[in-house]
Design goal:
This protein is an all-alpha fold. It has 21 helices and no strands. The chain has helices at residues 3-17, 21-34, 39-51, 55-68, 73-85, 89-102, 107-119, 123-136, 141-153, 157-170, 175-187, 191-204, 209-221, 225-238, 243-255, 261-271, 273-290, 292-305, 310-323, 326-339, 344-362.
């Protein structure tokens, strides 16, 4: 082998270790130019291009390696990620499938498949893959948090909290573990416990709109509406394109009797109707499960105080829909449409999504 190629390769390794992948790729290029058949140099150049986010160049090197050797699951995994980064999802899926075929018990392969399953909505499959990874590496915090996220999606809130707790015992201030546990605890109506986790997050990020949003939502759960509104005012100021922030602020305003709540809901749906629908229906469904008597009493009291209050009609109607009282719900929806005809489209989106959710539960 050309000594200069070996020296260039060593230079590339040193530059990669030093955190300069672009320069490392340049050194590996010299090695490849001098020894074109040297697959290890080409593989390392592909990895360097990958880290430098030059994905087309990385794919070209991985192609060359795989043309000579189709037995490495790691190369297929790396090319899968690179292909997905350039929008070639079919190619990425094929590479991931090939990696699973070659090494079905490989922890890296299972972890990658779990991540892809989670991304595409197969939370049960993702949780199964992450469980197998954790059997071989129980202290791997990213996988533990990933399984917590998957469990959150399948409504296994206890499991999600447990996974986050295990992750936090290893890394006490792990951001994603804390955020995921906050979400799970709020789903369990454990708002005080969620606030404790939010306090830890705010120590590191006191002005983060994402964290302030979580505190605002938790404060709504604690019925601290004025304090929640202060947080959510900051959220919509700092992150005006966050639809969930507008929806949550609308909810806080509604409970405070602020007539501008409807304007916040409209803004949320203008920005992202899908996200807004998900946020509001989750809130209605959680309250229907845990605070049904209180919700119905509040709607009645708000309506008695202000007969022009259409939001309480929508809230009560959706609550009744989740109860299985479709006929009563439709009476509320009809009254809403008379009061707030300009917002009928928002109501239609909420009712359609709620109806699908009720149907899915029955199946």
């Amino acid at each position: 082998m050309d000594p200069a190629a070996k020296q260039a390769f060593e230079n590339g390794m040193n530059l990669a270790r030093a955190g300069d992948p672009a320069a490392a790729a340049g050194a590996f290029t010299e090695a490849v130019n001098r020894e074109p058949a040297w697959l290890v140099a080409r593989l390392n150049r592909g990895a360097a291009w990958f880290l430098a986010k030059n994905f087309p160049a990385a794919i070209a090197d991985f192609d060359a390696v795989l043309a000579a050797d189709q037995t490495s699951p790691d190369v297929y995994l790396n090319r899968s990620v690179a292909r997905r980064a350039v929008g070639d999802h079919a190619g990425a899926d094929a590479d991931l499938a090939r990696a699973v075929e070659i090494a079905p018990d490989n922890l890296a392969v299972l972890n990658s498949r779990g991540a892809e399953r989670l991304r595409t909505g197969d939370a049960p499959g993702a949780a199964a893959d992450f469980t197998r990874v954790l059997e071989g590496n129980p202290d791997h915090v990213p996988t533990r948090v990933a399984r917590a996220t998957a469990r959150l999606h399948v409504l296994d809130f206890d499991g999600a909290v447990a996974d986050c707790g295990d992750a936090l015992r290893v890394e006490p201030k792990h951001r994603e573990a804390l955020i995921t546990r906050v979400s799970a605890r709020m789903m369990q109506q454990q708002f005080a416990e969620a606030m404790a986790d939010v306090a830890v997050l705010l120590e590191a990020e006191p002005t983060s709109p994402e964290i302030l949003y979580l505190r605002g939502v938790a404060r709504v759960g604690l019925e601290e509406y004025a304090e929640a509104l202060a947080d959510l005012n900051e959220v919509v100021k700092k992150a005006p394109q966050l639809a969930a922030g507008w929806a949550a602020r609308g909810n806080a305003k509604y409970h405070l009797g602020d007539a501008t709540a409807a304007a916040d809901y409209r803004e949320a749906f203008k920005i992202d109707p899908t996200s807004s629908t998900r946020v509001l229906l989750r809130l209605v469904r959680d309250q229907q499960r845990h605070k049904l008597t209180q919700v119905l009493a509040e709607c009645q009291a708000f309506r008695a105080k202000d007969r022009s209050d259409g939001i309480s009609l929508a809230r009560r109607g959706l609550t009744r829909l989740f109860q299985g009282r479709a006929a009563d719900a439709n009476l509320d929806f009809a009254a809403f449409r008379k009061l707030m005809p300009g917002d009928a489209g928002i109501l239609d989106a909420l009712v359609a999504a709620a109806t699908r959710a009720v149907g899915d539960k029955k199946r």
